[in-house]
Design a protein that fits this description.
This protein is α/β, with parallel strands linked by helices. Helix content is 62%, strand content 10%. It contains 35 helices and 16 strands. The chain starts with a helix and ends with a strand.
């Protein structure tokens, strides 16, 4: 027996099995082949099999695992200088990143692959990568650039007679023109793609193109033609053994019958799909089917049954997102935002507050809930030396790429050279984000984190005091939804249309001084008055969604204390630290931004800005509030590390500095302090998550520290959550660029109230409310711009 031939046979068999929709069987054969090739010392064979394993794993929706395989493979191929293999791996990574929603990083991965393939003159592969890049550009809304990539790919693939890539590109071009509203042209591209795919026997591409034809026909209201297209796809799926395609198509057929008003035929199609779903190789197919079933029951006006289907779907979604990095988990849940949309509507129509809370809790703050619930395990896991080395190397590459980009701008060497330098800089920045996520996933795997089940309604009610109300907000595709939870009961509330709420919130936040006070009555009427809060509610805990996470609810609820809660379950987890009380305030401020190290680091972090302005008022602020102070040249990350190690628990850790929000990569949002030889002067959200910061409160007296990246279901990711994870149950932060002098006065007043030298002061929410009233009492600071930006996340007491 020839082990080499056996390994190759197993490898080929696995590819066939995956093509038949049997990824579990494919992976079994691949791992057998891998073991044989490792025993033979067949380096290229091992890499080839690992590459296929990564591709099959991607198809099953286990993106974090697939990305890890690709990253290890990329390192190995770079070391061997296998440029063709590197390009192939970069393309695979790009596909995973694209499915995760990390479009900028996917684009950077494809761009590097394209550069290598052009250098190696790999014609068919160049065309393939151009198509992949075009798809990401389309998803980013860069339609002109996407069209350019598709057209170049088409010209190249047609010239080479590469019908497979031609067919795929035509399908993607159809999606592009459909996005732009040209349904006729889209139908033309899909039809040509399907004809070519059928000619060459490219079943997968044929199914995709025909499926798009059916969806487009549905969109145009031609349900009968849509059913014809979907029935043809169904027959082909069955013929090719594509179980996932069969389930998805039956689901589409059911959906078409729903909109034809034929509920019985819709139910029959869904029932047929259900018989196959237990053996479905892809969980996301199951999620789509259960989502359609929930929609069917909602349209049948049986919201209770819709709730049941939502519950089944959410089991799959939770399993798909567990153990991922913070942003990855949010993206995984956002991929199924339509399910959550139906979930909220179904629970509201069923009058089922318990179900509505369950759906809200499963959607938001999932990664934070998972992390805080396993904090002890994570604290015991340190970042690997390999991870730190990779992160430092990526940052150094970013610095060098930025310098090269600046030189290219000064040299005026032409657009092509400038574009190449900028692409290299973007790729380097994307690499920093990739390494950061890799570290976070590695930690979670090492800590053996498991699924953190959200608390139920009764448990969350038990966390609330008699005068408190926890208010969840959700914005569905149609109406807004709110859930008011009190110790004594709960109530689901239908709000006006989501688009109306969105527009009112945007109008409020569009003022020249960050808020347009004239818009307050309109937004209050939309999101506060329908709640019908009793007069005995003295404190409101707001769990917002979308843009509402950036709204200062203190302006909408002027007579009540306000705090923000990521979710009810995380509120309960944070309350575990409620009885702890630290001593003294550690305050760090007035950083020295003029050092060479700071300027270089800032260029990397802040996109080329040459300098941060000094903040002289922060010196007085730190001197007034801090018991232990670090100012100027001493206001470093190193000083923070030393201070944190000297006390078991602090009363507060206070930062008075600049803040840099990063909406694309929220874990790279940072507080800008003084750089030294040990640290770059930018304390990032990722670094904070690796620290232990035992403190009753963290105050980020800096601009826009409450911002980050907004996810549809998860909420806002950024610095605030990182400090909660690191050990602080309360975080005071800002929603916009703040005034230096007014901030100093507000912070001094807040600490006088909350942390008096003698006795005990009011809770954090009450102290913030009173401090804001104090600032508002000064004529020059009366406008909400000067005081309303400050919000409290976490425990209010």
């Amino acid at each position: 027996r020839d082990p080499q031939r056996i390994a190759q046979s197993l490898h080929n068999m696995a590819i066939a099995k995956d093509g038949l929709g049997e990824p579990a069987s494919a992976l079994k054969h691949l791992h057998e082949a891998l073991e044989l090739r490792q025993g033979l010392g067949d380096v290229r064979g091992v890499e080839e099999t690992r590459s296929v394993i990564a591709g099959v794993t991607t198809g099953t929706g286990r993106y974090g695992e697939a990305l890890g395989i690709y990253e290890a493979l990329l390192r190995a191929r770079r070391e061997r200088r296998d440029l063709e293999g590197v390009a192939s791996t970069l393309d695979g990574m790009g596909q995973v990143l694209e499915r995760q929603g990390h479009y900028a990083e996917a684009l950077a991965s494809y761009a590097e692959s394209l550069e290598l393939r052009r250098r190696l003159k790999l014609g068919p592969q160049i065309s393939y990568t151009l198509t992949n890049m075009g798809e990401v550009l389309r998803l980013l809304g860069n339609y002109d650039q996407a069209r350019e990539h598709y057209r170049e790919s088409l010209a190249l693939s047609r010239a080479m007679g590469d019908k497979a890539t031609t067919s795929t590109t035509l399908t993607n071009l159809g999606l592009l023109v459909e996005d732009l509203g040209d349904d006729e042209k889209a139908l033309e591209h899909y039809t040509e793609s399907a004809a070519i795919a059928e000619e060459i026997g490219a079943v997968s591409t044929l199914l995709h193109a025909l499926g798009n034809v059916g969806v487009l026909q549905m969109k145009r209201g031609d349900h009968d033609k849509a059913l014809e297209s979907h029935n043809r796809v169904l027959a082909l799926s069955r013929e090719s053994g594509d179980k996932a395609g069969e389930i998805a198509t039956l689901s589409n057929i059911g959906h078409a019958h729903v909109w034809r008003g034929d509920a019985e035929r819709a139910a029959a199609a869904f029932e047929e799909a259900l018989k196959l779903v237990e053996d479905a190789p892809h969980r996301d197919v199951s999620v789509r089917l259960f989502t359609n079933l929930a929609l069917l029951e909602l349209l049948r006006e049986d919201p209770a049954k819709a709730v049941d289907w939502v519950d089944r779907a959410l089991v799959e979604v939770a399993d798909l997102s567990t153990g991922l990095a913070e942003g990855e988990g949010a993206v995984a849940r956002d991929a199924h935002s339509g399910l959550f949309d139906i979930a909220y509507r179904a629970a509201l129509r069923a009058g089922d507050s318990a179900a509505l809370l369950r759906f809200l809790e499963q959607g938001r703050a999932g990664s934070l809930r998972e992390s805080i619930g396993s904090r002890a395990a994570l604290e015991a896991v340190s970042i690997s030396k390999r991870g730190l080395a990779a992160l430092n190397a990526a940052r150094q590459t970013t610095r060098e790429a930025l310098i090269a980009y600046k030189r290219a701008r000064r040299a005026r060497g032409g657009f092509a050279a400038l574009r190449q330098a900028r692409a290299a800089w973007n790729a380097a920045r994307a690499e920093v984000g990739r390494v950061a996520r890799d570290i976070e996933r590695e930690q979670k795997r090492a800590a053996a984190i498991t699924l953190a089940i959200p608390d139920d309604l009764a448990a969350i009610q038990g966390y609330l005091a008699p005068g408190e109300a926890l208010v969840y907000y959700a914005l569905t595709a149609a109406e807004g939804v709110a859930l008011v939870v009190r110790r004594s009961g709960s109530r689901a509330v239908a709000l006006p249309k989501s688009v109306t709420i969105q527009a009112a919130a945007e109008a409020l936040l569009a003022g020249e001084r960050s808020v347009d006070v004239a818009q307050l009555p309109a937004l209050r009427a939309l999101v506060i008055e329908p709640l019908g809060l009793d007069e005995d509610v003295t404190r409101v805990l707001v769990s917002p969604m979308g843009i509402l996470g950036y709204v200062p609810f203190a302006l909408l609820l002027p007579k009540r204390e306000v705090a923000y809660a990521p979710s009810g379950t995380t509120h309960g987890l944070l309350k575990q630290d409620a009885s702890l009380r630290g001593e003294q305030v550690f305050a760090l401020g007035d950083p020295d931004y003029g050092t060479t190290v700071n300027r270089r680091a800032l260029a990397v972090r802040a996109g080329g800005v040459a300098r941060l302005a000094a903040l002289p008022a922060t010196k007085q602020e730190v001197e007034a509030v801090g018991d232990v102070r670090r100012l100027g040249a001493e206001a470093t990350e190193t000083a923070l590390d030393v201070a944190l190690g000297k006390r078991e628990r602090w009363r507060a850790v206070h930062f008075a500095c600049h803040g840099l929000a990063n909406a694309e990569h929220p874990l790279l949002s940072a507080l800008a302090v003084t750089a030294d030889h040990e640290n770059d002067g930018f304390l990032t959200a990722l670094e904070i998550m690796q620290m232990k910061i035992p403190s009753d409160l963290v105050v980020m007296s800096a601009c826009e520290t409450g911002k980050g990246r907004i996810y549809k279901t998860e909420g806002v990711l950024g610095l605030t959550r990182s400090f909660m994870f690191a050990g602080s149950p309360r975080v005071l932060c800002s929603l916009w660029k703040v005034d230096d002098e007014a901030t100093r006065a507000l912070m001094i007043k807040f600490y006088e109230l909350w942390n008096p030298k003698e006795g005990k002061g009011p809770g954090a929410a009450a102290a913030l409310k009173q401090a804001q009233a104090f600032i508002r009492g000064h004529d020059k600071w009366k406008h909400p711009y000067f005081w309303a930006a400050w919000v409290l996340w976490g425990l209010p007491d």
